[in-house]
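Researcher: Batch entry, complex prediction.
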Amino acid sequence: MKIGVLIKQVPDTETKIRVKADASGIETDGIKYIINPYDEFAIEEGLKVKEKNPPSETVVISMGPVRCVEAIRTGLAMGADKGIYVDDTGITADNYVTARVLANAIKSENFDVIFCGKQAIDDDASQIVQMVAEFLNIPQVLIVEGFEVRADKKGATVSRRVGGGAKEVYEVDFPVIIGAEKGLNTPRYASLPGIMKAKTKPLTTLKATDLLGEAKPKTTNVNYRLPPERKAGKILQGEPDQVAKELVKLLREEAKVI
Amino acid sequence: MTLELATKASELAAKLGGEVDTVLVGHGIENPAELGSYGVKKVYVVDTAKLEKYNTEGVAKVIQDLVDEVKPSVILGTASPMGRDLLPRVAARLDAGLASDCTELDIQDGKLVATRPIYSGKAVVDVKFESSIQLATTRPNSFVAKVVQQGGAAEVVKKDIDPGNLRAVMKEIVKGKSNKVDLTEAGIIVSGGRAMKNAENFKILQELADVIGATVGASRAAVDSGYAPHDMQVGQTGKVVNPNLYIACGISGAIQHLAGMRTSKVIVAINKDPEAPIFTKADYGIVGDLFQIVPLLTQEFKKTLAE
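Model: Structure tokens for the complex:
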């Protein structure tokens, strides 16, 4: 089987986001970047499926500035076979353009299954998986918490988490693109031998400018700002049963939320 | 959620000098005309057994065919699991822009401007559109459903559209243990942190939740310790919630947790530690033992709500 994994670097979850003075974006100095947490589940699933279905190959792909290569190397260190880095220098990319470029980058790989995180925790848009699916003309399943390759290796049974603790079970033939959810698996750590091996695994660099075609951005983000700060509230004082009574009263009469 | 979106849509349509039409796709659709009370002018109903169960590409095709005919300038959906799955595919198919999970929508210079949180809510941004068709999904509980025309009936137009070849076919839906409202749509949430000590103890929160009509959530620490399942997690790598009331029990208030609930209209914090960061974001705080306080709250609410 041929397996692709799309990954993205995002600011570490501890990052305190600062907005540029001219509101054109966020300050990136000093930000520590990590692999998007949902993409880790995607890498792990790509490796598990490879291991369960030999002979298979797992390819990790990432588009962005040159620091992404580090993320791809981590994927290789975890056990992926090849990396593809798409250098995004020189293009203005929104979700639409990013999806077009990624689709063009991986089209010729003819993956049976492409794993991605269901969303990136910087933009939180959850659009890339669906748009790449449309541009490659393949089906999609997102918020995936279960993935079983069918016995004939030509498709899979996929379980998708929806609201209220329910899940939908899908049958889909390959090729398919999957948006991984937390709980799909437990991502492995890269071992030291894995890290050493990763240094010599093949890594191809492509240029987004070559893959753009006619694609132009469909949206622009403007007016970046911090959310309104919450005012300090009140700490209720007194014995437990007193404060409980007081809180109930406040929620009913002052806040009027119950 | 549909009603709150319909209300907002009719407001936007008024600004644009246009109308709001709704599309209902599925099987066994009931009472479509009722949407008229919320400002919807026309409801297109596509009722086919093929789409009794949701199918991304099938519904996307139906919408595409309708778009070709009706030529809307704005397409809105709720940021439910279905909306978030469907609208990006539709946007790609239409070569159009989409703003996801928006908390505010407006019209400026005849085009949609959408406001949305990014970096798990640590920042906010406005999205402007270059494409002629503008799409957006809206975060649950961002708008208020309002009857704009008492007894208003929308014009119902039945459409026969073939959803086409369906890939990724849904075979079954496995219902969750609880039939509670999902966290992302809940108006009231009671959440537990690592201080809950075990899964059993979440019963205490459920008892309070049952009395006040809330859904129970959990912090990442509680989920990672095995006290609650993944789908109860509120936070940066869990669910982002937008309730009117969020009661945090034994939750310290790490940045990542706050990211998941900071737009809550009212936050209550109950924690033994007076230095817990959550108190700096809470409207009301109680420094105390949740195992004492929560049952007392349950009792007091039961009494008060019975009156």
